[in-house]
Amino acid sequence: MEHEQANADVLWSFQSGQPAAGAEEAIELNVTDDAGAPIEKFDLNHEKLMHLIAVSSDLNYFSHIHPNYESGGKFTVKETFPAAGTYKLFADFIPTGAAQQTMSTEVEVTGQAAAKVELKADQELVKTVEGQQVKLALSTTKAGEEAKLTYTFEDAATGEPVTDLEPYLGAVGHVVIISGDLAKYLHVHPLDEAAKGPDAVFATEFPEPGVYKIWGQFQRGGKTFIVPFVVNIQA
Fold this sequence. Notes:
Radius of gyration: 18 Å
Structural class: mainly beta
CATH architecture of the largest domain: Sandwich
Number of helices: 0
Number of domains: 2
Number of strands: 16
CATH class of the largest domain: Mainly Beta
């Protein structure tokens, strides 16, 4: 499997050799340093030692899971890919004493393919999910500038502001952003981790123009929910 070069490296392996759609797949990630020696110590990053994001090539499928750390740099996790096709996996982790690392790989899944979903920018950044109406406002849609992402939550039934969002992995929410060509990956945390609504504000910078999909993950009433948006970023 191909993967990016950085201060750390990851050797990815899939138990079956090639995953099949609808079948649970065991995934192993072995983290090493530049010399190939196992990295054995990692820092907690929002309550987890590793965050693993899996997306389909059209970005219609999204999964955020947390591998278990065994020992000697080895992490293990299970995932069920819903349909055949190409998936990209991103692993986020912090080796103790080093900067946060993001490593990725692609995997081909066999079986029944799903219809491709065209990635198009949303005309309105408003979604209703799990009883919440969620609005997203971007302070800028230009690449290379700091962009504040403000999520505003209302109860979909009453229109009242939501003020009882619950911590998800130690913060009011988490945001993952991936470019339409799967080349750019951003994992964004809130400016005020203790916020409970009606607003949750995040800050990032879109590195290049293009179409990006944004997934916000939040929790209310003991239920975690995902709010997806697609935006077009200008030069």
